[in-house]
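The methods section describes the discrete structure representation at length, but only in general terms. An entry of this sort, consisting of the sequence and the corresponding backbone structure tokens, reads as follows.
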Amino acid sequence: MRTRIAFLLGLMGLVLAAAATASAENAPGIVKKGTWLETVLANHEAVTGREEQQSKRPRLKRDAQVPALWQLTEETSPDALSFRLAQIEERAGIWKDDWKTNDWPALAERYARSSGKLTAKARELAKTCKSLDDLKRVRDLFYVQYAESRIAFAEETLAYVERAAARPELAARLKALRAELPAAEQGNASGEALYAKACDLRREIILSHPLLDFPKLLINKRTDHLPEHMCDQYLGRHSQPAPGLVVLENWKGQAKETVLLEGKLPRGAALQPDLSYDGGRVLFAYADHSVQKDSRLRGYYIYEYEFATGKVRQITGTDRDPMQGRDGRETVLIEDTAPCYLPDGGFAFISTRSQQFGRCHGGRYVPSYTLFRAETDGTRIEPLSLNESNEWAPHVLNDGSLAYCRWDYVDRHDVQFQSLWTMRPDGTQTAHYYGNNSPAPCLISEPQPIPGGNKTVCTCGAHHGQTLGTLVVVDPNKGQDSGEPLTWITPELGFPESGVPAGITKARMPPPEDAHGGRASTAWPLSEDLFLCSYQHGAEHAIYLIDTLGGRELIYADPKVPCFDPMPLRPRPQPPIIPSVVAEKPDQKTGFFFVQNVYESTQPIPPGTIKAMRINEIISQPTNQAPGRSYVHNEVVKRILGTVPVNEDGSVAFEAPARTPVQLQLLDANGMAVMTMRSLVYVQPGEKAACVGCHEPRQNAPPAAAPRHMTFLKIAPPVGPRYDGGFSYVRTVQPVLDRYCIRCHGAGDAPRGLDLTGAFFKLGKDGKRLDRGEMSYFSASYESFFSVSGLIKVAQRNSQTIYSKPMDYFANAGRLGKMLLDGHPDKAGAKRVQLDRDSFQRIVDWLDLNAQFFGDYSFNRMELQTARGDGEKALRAAIEKRFGADLARQPFAALVNVANVPESRILMAPLPAAAGGWGQIAAGAFAGRDDPAYKEMCQLVAASITPLATHDIAGTCGRDDRCMCGDCWVRKAMDARRQRLAEKPADPAPGQPVASR
């Protein structure tokens, strides 16, 4: 049987497809009759074309008739009972097959054959069915089974409610309702009417629960017709105007609504409201559609509404907002969403101020937005998170910490891991909460704390979809991954883009007629059993009350606008204020990490085998589009900050740069990675972050602080050259190959097996360079390493294992590291080459960084500089004069390193080892670095390189009209904003109502 979600999502497409074959005036129309059955019958005529001769309306194809029938009926009868009747009759197949008008026995037989214990009685009646009234009598018997089931459901609900408060009047009514069943079974009362009364009474019982005793409900009316991707959905360019915040009074009955923003803000879209703890204010994101005609320049900013005064004020995005991006970049339009009140009086929010992009969006404008905080007057905007990819939906837990969703794909699958994390409101003590090693659920977000404990209710959605899906409760005391910590609150709704987590506990399924599929979101927990939420209702989302008994009660629906974010409009307990440690040292440049024991791990690591920890900085992608970085698709750029020793007891403590995302690697005695973090961590200024071990179970409580005797070590910098940006193969690895390898592999006329020069030109079978049109994206040496199977083992995009295991990838997993460690022996076992320790470590560092090639995301790369004709000619002439014709004829890349000029082979090979050179060329060797001949050669080398024509500006490619990064327009927009601000008067003082910008 088709699920309800597939059914509903297909309605519009099928009707439109059918309408495409007919003129607009002949398309099926909506018919409304007095009862639901009569409406269905009338619409059945409309969609099957029974009145073709009179209306000239073409008959719909059979596969479009039933969906079109239900759409028309739902549009005329959007109430909860009608939806239940439709679901019951769809599941029973009443309207599945064709039916001839006035063939009452045939239609009655469909009801009769599905009448449960009354089937025989119903079939006898169906044989003599001659009219609509006769049909209704058969149909009433069909509905008796559902009435009986709903009465039993109401009795169970009453027992649940009466655990909180006695309900004698409701109990008496329910008893009387059950007494009506025998008459209905005898055909002396309407089964459909009895079913309807049972539905109404069950609803009244559950709504009488004391936790639902509040007069007003706040909701948000906004579109759900947004891009089906977890990132695009929250961008202002995709927003659509809608009423926004609405207060519902008499929300249990015929609700009276008040649209809060009407007349107070221009036409626009509200998103992700959060109610203050005293219930007097609400923060929300708003995209003003009256300001920017260009949708690219339309963004969300944070506003606040005050219930007592009805005033709205804009907090971020005003002319007072400096709108400063991280590291001076101007690559992303600044937007702010998902505000969340903090107990200390400030608020957290999600922002694109981090000025970075996801790496796997194929050039689509999808910036990464991460967690920030500010004061409610818009001042002191500071980053809380240094994550390189997106984050969502912060909410304060009952202990005062923040929970939020974070996307991780550092050396791991880029779809499967959008999990829950926590931090203190000052950005310290970042920790995993649930799901970081769980591919199912795919995405878990919108955490809301359940009153009175440490559990949360969350939405499980898809990567390629909006944050809509199924609802679960997370109990962190039961673990941090898989299904054991989860209770599935809406088991009728599947887990989008993933399977069901193993070991999950299911709440009770709703009655079949309530399990109509779709997607849910924005749950507001009243207890572990009662939740308000947004739930699929026909083609739109509506506000529902759901419970763990299986109840699904419609609270409010707008047939024209989807509804989200239900919140009781009343005060709620304020969590404790956690004092900030960052406020004490906001200008401190470093923080501290302490790991108690690296051997305390979910993976076996033999004690004593770990000698050091490598700390790698994770560098985010600053632009919409970026060229490749390595053989690994969509690779994240890394920079080695250095290493620190690990003590014999497995402990390690070190000082690290603050607000810098880092990856940690455990190294063996050879400096090769044994275990590698597939995520990132960071410290705030002055923070002391501590953990038990590496990948230890979440239940293992970390030490409160490092022991007093512990010395926090400085990070020892890596071997090799120093330069800005991430690790560059050309700058760090190629000099080692030039020194030890290319004399056999590439410096001559043809390489022996592998070309290990730094040339960016592919070679033909004869070993000669192909023409310029065949220029390689990576260097010859880099591609050569990957041409030999098993030589290098990388964590390739979306083929990585779920979590790290010892020596699964990198230097310890491929053959190259061990081969170089053994001296690259020949068949007889004799060593062909013996790398010095630092040179070997350069190769290992590269392998352990997943064989990264470029150290940036730029379109202006030093590594891609080429030889300058006249300069190259002058250089070769000088080489021939001093060192001979053979050396002068060698490939340019075997002589010059365009990105690391000081380590060019023509400079290092003739430089004595005592002067820091390689000491490989005796005849004509330089005396030292002060030798005039050496200095002259340095100048000739520099002059042989064609300089870059363009350079990065504020993170963009700086090419403007010839833009390749996709973001030069952002820099221009920011320039225009600065110019406008310089020409206009200042805005009102902070805290005053301001016009939207």
Summary: The longest helix spans residues 132-161.
